[in-house]
Amino acid sequence: MPHSHGKNHGEDLLALALQVAREAGELLMKRPLAFDISTKTSALDFATQMDTDSETLIVESLLQARPTDGIVGEEGASRPSTSGITWVIDPIDGTVNYLYALPGWNISIGARDGQGPLVGVVHAPTLNSTWTAIRGGGAFFNGVAIACNDPVTLDRALIGTGFEYDVDKRIEQGRVVAHLLPLIRDLRRMGSAAVDLCYVAMGAFDGFYESGLKEWDSAAGGLVATEAGALVTTNEAGITICAGPALHPALVEALTG
Ligand code: IPD
């Protein structure tokens, strides 16, 4: 058998994901003098040459080590798995932050198997922050075990959120903000769903929600959050909601209807 299984299997995958995320981080820290911007689903949704260069580096490195794994990447990398492991990659989560040289953009690499998310790495060089998790093994911030805030009541909750690139969906997201804002401590919009989920995991946020997230936005950060004791669910309206066990039902209720 080419690879070990059980806990060590997860550890091997995590070590690989960490190494590859750090290599991509080094690439991305060398900001280009000029950006090639290509628009995607809307004029607001774009990728730069650095998104594609980072995805290429990550995919090549992962497949060199594990040629039979599957790949799902934000910038189009797609490949079926014959090993049972599929990597879910956001080569720059927080592309708008990256373009404007704001901190918080990151490389998000998750691996899933037949039972769901198995490994997650969110690496944010500008924050000197790396979050990691293996299913059943807890969550870590720069190597130190972390836990979400719990219990927290809705009226004392600091909540992170983000907005979609589609203008019509933003109108609805604006309505949701108007409803929620008077019910909570305050709202934050940092610019990266992956880091937002990790912030819940380490107690820097009490909760996070966003509608329309893609698998690569939440694959790694969602595992970090659940391994830190948070609940992560997606409601009928497509809103992903992440918070500690006491706050989660109240946040779900506040965001429903
Ligand atoms: C985006 C960021 C942002 C969130 C968007 C995502 P990208 O990811 O996570 O915070 O609000 O929904 O699409 O496009 O920069 O990889």
TrEMBL record:
Keywords tagged on the record: Hydrolase, Magnesium, Metal-binding
GO terms of biological process kind: inositol metabolic process; phosphatidylinositol phosphate biosynthetic process; signal transduction
E.C. designation(s): 3.1.3.25
EC class: hydrolase
MF (Gene Ontology): inositol monophosphate 1-phosphatase activity; metal ion binding
Catalytic activity: a myo-inositol phosphate + H2O = myo-inositol + phosphate
Requisite cofactors: Mg(2+)
Pfam families attached to this UniProt entry: Inositol_P (PF00459)
Protein family per UniProt: Belongs to the inositol monophosphatase superfamily.
Protein name: inositol-phosphate phosphatase
UniProt lineage: unclassified sequences, metagenomes, ecological metagenomes
